[in-house]
């Protein structure tokens, strides 16, 4: 008596649905690739871990052109899951499979990377700042090796250092920097300002006049003290 092998179960096949991003190249292709590079520079991880479909319906490429485009994407570490919109006759074993009947959904917003702040720089004035002159340097500190005359003005995004007499107007922290300070060898200013706060000569009093001084901001109030 011969034993019969048990019937084999049919191979189970189940459908799966995944969300995928669709890349849609346009002519001229060089410009499209340049835009793609700019996008990847802003968001280097945009395509990591995502299924990608290459929609070439607008290009109508031949087999060699499609292979070259896939190679260009591969150099950018972009791996394509399937191709849409190509003629079936150009597809080959070396290319991703041809996909049919895809349904577009909402456009994916590309995240924007905030721009890096401009680096702070220093400006040094060799000599004096004379009456009527205005020195504006919003991206950093200003150092004056001489004096600042009455009627002159210094505006800095950072701190202000005056190695002579300060007789004009000095406004530090103009780039919304409340930690900026003003230093001078001889304190005789017409006006002082840090961030959005100012004090005129009439509000300063005579106690520091002619002395080396520093000025800073503390809790929204301008503070002054002798350096001697």
TrEMBL record:
Subunit record text: Interacts with MinD and FtsZ.
Pfam families: MinC_C
SUPFAM superfamilies, A to Z: Cell-division inhibitor MinC, C-terminal domain
Alphabetic keyword roster: Cell cycle, Cell division, Septation
Function: Cell division inhibitor that blocks the formation of polar Z ring septums. Rapidly oscillates between the poles of the cell to destabilize FtsZ filaments that have formed before they mature into polar Z rings. Prevents FtsZ polymerization.
InterPro entries membership: CAP/MinC_C, MinC, MinC_C_sf, Septum_form_inhib_MinC_C
Protein name as it appears in the record: Probable septum site-determining protein MinC
Record-stated family: Belongs to the MinC family.
The keyword Nucleotide-binding is assigned to this record: no
Domain Septum formation inhibitor MinC C-terminal: 125-223
